[in-house]
Design a protein that fits this description.
Blueprint lengths: L3 H17 L3 H24 L5 H25 L6 H4 L12 H22 L1 H13 L11 H35 L1 H14 L4 H18 L3 H23 L10 H5 L1 H22 L2 H4 L20
Helix pairs in contact: 1-7, 2-3, 3-7, 5-6, 5-9, 5-12, 7-8, 7-9, 7-10, 8-9, 9-10, 9-12
Length: about 300
């Protein structure tokens, strides 16, 4: 008689096999095609001023993430598979959640150090870079924003994106690329693709590498989703504090970044050292873990044929 642990292991294997068989290009085409009618509807609503402002931004964000999530759910449910096993905690390596600390510090310090480097070349160029970073404003709020809207913002920023992006960039891409090229290439490719979709490219790439190693180590998305949610959730918390409690306006000129540049450099050294050490200690997993297609012994001894 199977134990619960053996059953979860078998389900987890089937889910990973399903992901490894997905055609990334075809899945992307289907997702974009499915978004078109909803995009048209949102455009009409905005043009007719039926929905505008923050509510429109929330609707756009929800659509962008909910439609692909629904497609992933459908793709698995039609094969009688649930995503729950791969999203569950394995009960191990929870200490890795603390990696959210150096990941956040690294993202901040990379921008800080970039400003310092640009400033050595041209003060105007450094200021332009800072202006660009400060100009990126999604889900604009004010002191008059209703409290309930912050809950919707939290869902749109700290719940849906981590869930979808971990399913796509960690599970789907790593399993698919790992099957075709090996997990080393899978981690690198998925992390680069994840990085170029974010403003802080370098920070996001490192973020992707760390979460990829955690996924491979645990065969679970639980810790990656939690870290991702904490990272994004802090943004919402700061927005709330800035609107409702006291202002947390970002520095608008490069002077304070230059004046306190030593702080940015220290943060960069500490965070990059911490993350580098973790990567060095866990990189061997990309060689040790065997891609699904190369496994000869399947935990559940079930062969399933999947096509997206």
């Amino acid at each position: 008689m199977q134990t619960r642990r053996e059953e979860n292991s078998q389900l987890n294997f089937q889910i990973r096999k399903r992901f490894s068989s997905i055609s990334i290009s075809r899945a992307l085409f289907i997702a974009l095609f499915s978004l078109l009618p909803f995009g048209l509807l949102l455009f009409i609503l905005n043009t007719k001023e039926v929905v505008t402002g923050l509510k429109m931004e929330l609707l756009i964000s929800a659509t962008i993430y909910l439609i692909p999530l629904a497609l992933i759910y459908y793709a698995f449910s039609k094969k009688d598979l649930s995503l729950k096993p791969i999203l569950k905690s394995t009960g191990k390596h929870h200490i890795d959640i603390l990696l959210v600390i150096p990941l956040i510090l690294f993202s901040i310090s990379v921008i800080w150090v970039t400003i310092l480097l640009f400033n050595t070349l041209s003060a105007e160029f450094a200021q332009s870079y800072l202006d660009f970073m400060n100009s990126i404003d999604m889900l604009v709020t004010t002191a008059e924003t209703p409290y309930i809207d912050y809950f919707y913002i939290f869902v749109a920023v700290a719940v849906l994106p981590p869930l979808l992006e971990e399913l796509v960039f960690r599970a789907a891409m790593i399993e698919r690329f790992g099957r075709k090229f090996g997990f080393k290439t899978g981690v690198i490719l998925s992390s680069i693709l994840f990085g170029v979709m974010h403003i802080d490219v370098i920070g996001a790439i490192v973020f992707g590498v760390i979460l990829s190693l955690i996924y491979l180590k645990t065969s679970s998305l639980f810790i990656p989703v939690v870290i991702h949610a904490i990272n994004n959730g802090l943004v919402v918390i700061f927005i709330f504090i800035d609107d409702k409690l006291f202002p947390l306006s970002p520095w608008e000129t490069t002077e304070p970044y230059v004046e306190f540049g030593w702080i940015g450099i220290i943060l960069f050294i500490i965070s990059s050292g911490w993350l580098t050490l973790y990567i060095m200690q866990n990189w061997s997993i990309v060689h040790k873990k065997v891609p699904i297609a190369e496994q000869t012994a399947q935990p559940e001894q079930i062969s399933i044929q999947v096509n997206l």
